[in-house]
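Bench notes, afternoon.
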Amino acid sequence: MSSLRLILNGKSAGQPRVRDAVKAVRADGHRVEVRVTWEAGDVERLTAEALADAATGHLDTIVAGGGDGTINGVFGAVASSPSPKLCTLGILPLGTANDFAHAAGLPVADLTACLRIAADGPAHDMDIGVLDGRPFINLLTGGFGSRVTVETDPELKRRLGGLAYVLTGLARLKDLTASRGRFRAEHFEWEGPFLAIAIGNGRQAGGGIALCPDALVDDGKLDLMILPDLAATQRGDVLGQLLRDGATGIGALQRTARGAWIEYESDEELHINLDGEPMRSRKFRVECRPGALSVRLGASPLLGAGV
């Protein structure tokens, strides 16, 4: 039986379905301890405390309970620790979009099933991305898509979920401007104006928009998607297609690559979003850190073996 420490986003602490899931998994015989975040810095502090307890044998699994930001915070803190594989990680998806959990194939609507996977599912080594030393779990996006993520009204997200990003993006099309930059990866170089980019360890962002639909978290690679600039008459239709159907909807218009590292450089600042955190940068290098974490995801399509 497992000993779990659930690091729970404070916004979700009062949900009856969370309490039901914890009760059910305790009834299975697992030990589940809950720690609730309250303010900035709590995720990192509580994760450090959990790792210290894991070092003494008090627990063997840390579960991130929240949305993509909470997952990135907990997983990133573990990845940055001296002993990232000291314990196994799990996910209790409680966010608005739950992009990583959805792409991983977790039964997002059934929290008890998710917590049971975290408790006794098979553990797999999982890659992470690292942006100039900062770990991320899911996606880096840049250009138009990252601005949409930042500008989407939180209340609209609460009421409409992932659809809020699509509606916001369609409403912002008239304000769209292209960025220009240079990309390098293994056996790949591209330079020019572009509308959107994504660098994925995971597959989707923005409430279900699959920007890197073939990405895997155990292949030692990151996926790159670039949507080059288009004629003004094409922009609205193509970006609308991207927001609705993901990268598969724009077909041959995109440029793609896959590699252990990806570099970007520009003479102008680019709006980027790193697993929910908005940033700006003129130059960056993203690297894949293979097999950095031990994670329970169930029968996940993000795993190369499909198990």
